[in-house]
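Researcher: I'm preparing a figure for a lab meeting and need a structural model of a single chain. I don't have an experimental structure, so a prediction will have to do for now. The sequence is pasted below. Please return the structure as C-alpha cells so I can convert it later.
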Amino acid sequence: MSINVAINDTNLHVRDINCLRHMLGVNENRHKNQWGLRNHFAATPEGDDYDSMQRLETHGYVVQGRSRYGMVFYHATRAGCVLVGLNQRQIENALGE
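Model: Understood. Here is the structure written out cell by cell.
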C-alpha cells in the first residue's frame, strides 16, 4: 500500500506532509481503520517540526492548541485530514465528531 499526497502548494514541504500524516496516525504500517484515531502533534519552537507546523497552520491544515512543557501542540483541521486522504469516518474520528 502506498500513501501518496499531491503537494499542490509549493510552499509546503514533504516534511510538512509527513508531520501531518504522523499527527493523524497515517502510515503504511497501520491499518487504515486506525487512521484518524489520533490528532495531535507536539513541536518545540527550536525544532524543525515547528517550522512545518507553522507552514501547515498558515494554509489552514492545522490549528495551534495549548502550549505545555515548552512544546506547542497542534491539531489537524478538516482540510488537513482531506489533504492526507482520510475518508469521512476517519475525519469524524480525528475531529471528534
